[in-house]
Amino acid sequence: MPDPLARRADAIHQTLIVMEQDAEADDLFALGYLIPQVPLVMEMVEYDPENVVPEDFDDVFLEWLNNAFADDAMSQHDQDHIRQLWDQARRQSNAA
Predict the structure, then answer these.
(1) 0.85 exceeded by the pTM?
(2) pLDDT, tens digit, for every residue of 15-72?
(3) C-alpha to C-alpha distance for 48 and 96, rounded to whole angstroms
(4) Closest by Cα among 93, 33, 27, 24 to 58
(5) In this record, what's one Pfam family (predicted)?
(6) DSSP per residue over 74-91, as a string?
(7) How far is it, in rounded angstroms, from Cα 13 to Cα 96?
């Protein structure tokens, strides 16, 4: 059976990588922060593939991201920029 969370994570991860290839210099830090977070979330999350939908990954990732910001003492400006690129990656992954 296909794993909806893993498929969604892979799609977003690939979108972020493509975004990084075409990124402006101002976006490189934020994308460099986001890209490795996706596989980390998938390593840590516990779930039953039969009981999730792809969009559940977005919720799990956002919760993870908010905790990571707190742990990393991330500035509000950097948090906002990272969230903006996260939202862009989500939209692009949805359109693909």
Answers:
(1) yes
(2) 999 999 999 999 999 999 999 999 999 999 999 999 999 999 999 999 999 999 999 9
(3) 25
(4) 93
(5) YfcL
(6) --HHHHHHHHHHHHHHHH
(7) 13
